[in-house]
Amino acid sequence: MKEILDKKGFICDMDGVIYHGNKILDGVKEFVNWMIENDKKFIFLTNSPERTPHELSMKLQRMGLEVSADHFYTSAMATAEFLASQKPGCTAYVIGEPSLTKAMYDKKIYMNDINPDYVVLGETRTYNFEKLEKAIELVRGGAKLIGANPDTVGVTEKGIMPATGALIAPIEIATGKKAYFVGKPNPLMLRHGLKLLGCHSADIAFIGDRMDTDIIAGIESNVDTVLVLSGVTKEEDIQNFPYRPKYVLGGVGDIVK
Prior knowledge:
The chain is of the alpha/beta class. It has two domains: 2-47 and 184-256, Rossmann fold; 81-181, 3-Layer(aba) Sandwich (Rossmann fold), CATH 3.40.50. The chain has helices at 2-5, 28-37, 53-62, 75-86, 98-106, 129-140, 164-175, 188-197, 211-220, and strands at 9-13, 19-20, 23-24, 41-46, 72-74, 91-95, 110-111, 118-121, 144-147, 153-156, 159-162, 180-181, 204-208, 224-228, 247-249. A six-stranded parallel beta sheet has the order 5-4-1-13-14-15. A five-stranded parallel beta sheet has the order 7-6-8-9-12, sandwiched between helices. Strand 10 and strand 11 form a beta hairpin. Helix 6 crosses helix 7 (164-175). It starts with a helix and ends in an 8-residue tail after the last strand.
């Protein structure tokens, strides 16, 4: 545990690590307060493109945690940053929540439903056949297909909802084009997180609850990985993967017990 405590900074997944739905997990307040009191650098990383950093900050505030918006980095932000680096001044047809569109505007990527460079898709509750039909037309016309993350399902308080990977699948099938996914397990997101923290990979621990997205992304970014069993992956599931996390804990609260 001392090796974890001595880290200069932490990159943390959110759902399954910090909260479930609108319920904060045990030990999280103590862990976050410990990071603040000990001047640890930290950033919360989420594959969900549905909320802006300010909205995520407000969500934690409602749960009793004061964390400023500059401590959050989303797949929407990573997607916009990736596209801006690939083709500055590009345009996109976006299917997603307003937070995804805002991330695009912040990087000077503007909306275009005639001849965009990219078709970009993220989790959304406004998905419909008309938008799907338009996306297929544009991809067949030459637009590159981009997904904010490859997740096929998301967990809500009501159960399971289709995530980006599931929503983008009909476009892939209809066009024969494969999407490029920016979110975890793509190590791009973690590398952006490291850049924001201004830390070397050896000085950071990445905390996540999923072997198939979080832990593999950490390993491929050469960052020490901490799997917490408070979310998706259970202890017996670890043996099903050909790689292992460096540390396994019940939850983030175990770090500061």
